[in-house]
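Figure 2 data, in text form.
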Amino acid sequence: MNLTLHLTENCNLCCTYCLREKCPRDMTEEVLYKACDLAFSKGTRAGLCFFGGEPLLKKDLIYKALDYCKEKSEETGIRFDCKMTTNGTLLDEAFLERAREAEMVIGLSFDGKAQDVCRRYADKNKSPTSAVVEKKAKMLLKYIPNSVAMMTFAPEAIPYYAESVKYLHELGFMRVTANLAYGKNVSWSDSDLDLLKVELEKTSEYLVQLFEKDDRLSFGPLHSKMLENIKGHNPSEKCHLGVRQMPVTPAGELYPCTSFIGDKDYYLGNVFDGVDNDAAARIAAKSHTPKTCLECDLVKRCTNSCGCANRMNTGDENEVSPLQCTYERMVIEAADDLGDRLYTIDSDRFMKRFCG
């Protein structure tokens, strides 16, 4: 079973687009161990994602979980996998040594050249974070080279989009993702989306240049759309409202996704009593393709049924916002164009890299 552990609701940054309200509420050791037990209670593997707030504020809990789950894995024969999403500011070599030993996959929330536009410290001066995170990113890559740089772009950061992709790759990241900032703290205009399209085109040009040099970079928005199309995967089927990865609150409550935390209608149980299977089935049944998308030619190529994104944008897990629809269309068009260009440049290399 896969669980996302919200180790704390506190954070040392103040990101303009963040929807989570910071408060000094931390997970207890009792909840932590019960969550670990729950992860091992079903299936052939146990997976934990350390999350927050900022999870490294509770580094002690992460160490305890790693030790406990290592013992559980040895006792049960069940494989244990772990990952973490962090802003990176609190990374140190001792932690990264432990993370490497545990084969932890780390996603670094790093907006590249736009870092100081939206991601600053939560001090009275809102101090910049870019210099610190760049230093920590280099340290991270030294220990865990396959780490992922995860960008989130608000409208005011879009001018830095393509430049940031190049910067992160030159820093040493081989995997970069980029997502739009959604929710009540951002406001997108048509001109913002026009500029985003231009930035995606610039990014595609950079990816073409890398392909021509046989340099590798996996860039989430475009390459994932390419691969899904090639392999016939439907990204809208990825959302199952809690079946695959349930968040665990500091109090030990279970919900289908982060944006549903605190909503009693989506309560799935707790780490002490386990998952309420009836509630899980009832909630999972709510996950379906929105009616407005059924007749769309791209219905099987976009994330229209992502309940979390839909809820953030429209308040309804089964209603897609115009923003998300426009963005999905934009990314699909850019990905298809990129795929055609790369295939034309070297069809054999394209087939080996993307179809092998």
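Caption note: The chain is about 40% helix and 15% strand.
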